[in-house]
Design brief:
The structure is a single chain. Helices cover about 50% and strands about 15% of the residues. It is built from 13 helices and ten strands. Strand 4 (about 155-160) and strand 5 form a beta hairpin. Helix 6 runs antiparallel to helix 9 and helix 7 crosses helix 8.
């Protein structure tokens, strides 16, 4: 094989109704049932029917997406003997990467992200918005000015690419920054349909409580190289991994830095999970060879590249 593989796992926003496909259900029925028993709700009903409109509620989204991404990873392992060179994940997807790299037990991670979601839901209300077509430094300056003028919280949350930055904070402050960004030349500013304002200082109290919670979680050195969101760099020390997971709640997702490291390594990238949100972001970062594990032609596309 001439090129190594990098697996990237999606975060919130990739979830969708019906993402537990029939083949995943039939192949991993016991694991899905064990997961349902652990958290005391029916994952198949939640994900494929969503009768109570909970799938997009953070405390349900996070375990649902972790489970689905992990099943895609198990399927990936079944159809290929390739051992990935690196793994990483976008925001919540970092937990999928840590599970896939044997750093966290799947069931312990499932319980962890469920509690993470509950803590995040208890944070002060706020919103998030994607700003397109304006550079990060200009957006940071606008956020800083808004915080000085109003005393509100608003900052860059997801540094996705040179043309896409997501901001988070108090709702009015986010709206003001969106207006100012458009005046400064942004092509679009889109309010996101999320239930909590992630990766900003509104998450300070949840992060403090999460720090106490994660202290009792068993995390070991990953068997595959991991790049974490908060540092934008490789992590192999258990305590560093825990610290970065806590700081990720209030800090920016440094996705541009992560994508740059992947480009330097000349990896074939596989988005492992439901949907293809990260494929588009990857391409805007100059990475062309990004495959989708949920694509029905994934196996043949992989053979073409390797």
């Amino acid at each position: 094989m001439s090129r190594d593989i990098g697996l990237i796992f999606p975060g919130q926003g990739s979830q969708h109704l019906g993402m537990l496909t029939p083949d995943l259900i039939s192949n991993y029925k016991d694991l899905i049932q064990e997961s349902s028993d652990l958290l005391d709700f029916d994952f198949i009903k939640l994900i494929n029917e969503d009768p109570s409109n909970k799938l997009n509620k953070t405390s349900f989204t996070q375990p649902a997406l972790l489970l689905t991404s992990y099943l895609h990873f198990l399927k990936f392992k079944e159809i290929t003997s390739i051992h990935p060179f690196i793994m990483t994940g976008h925001s919540l997807g970092e937990y999928s990467a840590l599970v896939a790299s044997n750093s966290i037990n799947f069931f312990e991670a499932l319980n962890l992200v469920r509690n993470r979601g509950l803590l995040m839901e208890a944070a002060p209300e706020g919103s998030m918005a994607a700003i397109l077509g304006l550079d990060q430094i200009t957006i940071e300056d606008i956020c800083d000015l808004e915080q000085i003028k109003t005393g509100s919280i608003v900052s860059c949350a997801n540094l996705n690419s040179s043309i896409q930055t997501v901001i988070a904070g108090n709702t009015d402050a986010v709206s003001n920054v969106c207006s100012a960004a458009k005046e400064a030349g942004a092509k679009r500013a889109i309010t996101l349909n999320v239930s909590v304002p992630s990766h900003c200082m509104l998450m300070e109290k949840p992060a403090s409580l999460f720090n106490k919670f994660i202290h009792n979680v068993s995390i070991t050195e990953p068997s595959t190289k991991i790049i974490q969101n908060f540092s934008g760099d490789f992590s192999n020390n258990a305590e560093l991994i825990k610290s970065n997971l806590v700081n990720q709640l209030t800090g920016s997702v440094k996705w541009v830095e992560i994508m740059n490291k992947i480009k330097e390594l000349n990896l074939i990238v596989i988005e492992c999970g439901p949907g293809k949100v990260l494929q588009g972001i990857g391409r805007s970062n100059g990475i062309s060879d990004i495959l989708i594990s949920s694509d029905e032609n994934f196996k043949s596309h992989l053979k073409e590249l390797i």
